[in-house]
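Handout for the seminar on molecular recognition.
Each group receives one record of this type.
Step one: identify the two inputs.
Step two: read the structure output and locate the region that could contact 6-O-phosphono-alpha-D-glucopyranose.
Step three: write two sentences on what you found, then compare them with the reference statements printed after the record.
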Amino acid sequence: ETIEKGGYDHFMIKEIFEQPRSIADSMRGRLNAAEAQLQLGGLSNYMDKLVAADRIVIVGCGTSWHAGLVAEYLFEELARVNVEVEYASEFRYRNPVIKENDIVIAISQSGETADTLAAIELAKSKGATIFGICNVVGSSIARASHAGAYTHAGPEIGVASTKAFTAQVTVLTLMALAVAKKKGTITDEVFERLLAELDNIPSKVNKVFESATKIKEIAFIFTYAKNFIYLGRGLNFPVALEGALKLKEISYIHAEGYPAAEMKHGPIALIDEDMPVVFLATKDSSYEKIVSNIQEVKARKGRVIAIVTEGDTLIPTMVDFVIEVPDTHEVLTPLLSVIPLQLLSYYIAVMRGRNVDQPRNLAKSVTVE
Ligand code: G6P
């Protein structure tokens, strides 16, 4: 194999541990926190169009669609623009309403996913402006877009996407911030604080890795679980979806991600002493609500693994296991909270003896319908 595993057992774990560097690479030449400067060269000619847009439609598949859901929160919160996130495969067959000043952002690691490519061709034919957020340079989606920003995560070999996701979220954060700054929807103070926080993310991801041994112990306890539920709110809702997807993809354990508040409309019926529930419970604006969702699960004897903010003293008294992540600005939380979920799924899959890098029935790049 030309690209080596660098001493790791699998590409996936190598790629998980590469994230401090790949996130930094996705910001290199774009973010200068010390001087409060942010530029996205590939988008500069289209920035005015992006700022003027009434609506952004994001299309993608799989993990890239989850990055799109994170971006929906980011663009709405920071840049106050209406965002819709679509599965490319649904969008392309639905005769969607697209207007000429709509911006369509296609997110794709490979840049070759057939449904995503077809979705942008359709949007283009209706006059929309297409931005591609791709990892593979010169890929079909990158070439079919009017403009874009590469994620620069480096080659991703593991079929289950890890570092490509965090790079996508990073680039989308930079985009949302650039628009917000230009529109004046955030103050200079918040803008500068977010740039500084982004700059700190790679070292905070390294801190999450200090929990790797603990996560391995938790993985050992739950190796043979039959089901898993992942719950989160706000920006941590897409992270819950992504955590469940990672587990399904490589361990073949059935897992569902849900918005925590929706639990009472269905998944709560599944909870008993055999059900592991992973809560994304970082200290953010929905913290109190998540605490009561945890109580609801514990009252039904579910076994709770909570991803919490460093120094949280309340949740550890309520749950079975906690994994800490460093504090950051709320909008950047997904970049940290997803890391323990990647590790948990990796260790469980390895303990089950799965083919982690090439799970059955899955392909790295889906170039057919
Ligand atoms: C496949 C891969 C996933 C990926 C999805 C979208 O299902 O196994 O990891 O998220 O395709 O791929 P893309 O290259 O468009 O991001």
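Reference statements: The radius of gyration is 20 Å. The chain is about 45% helix and 15% strand.
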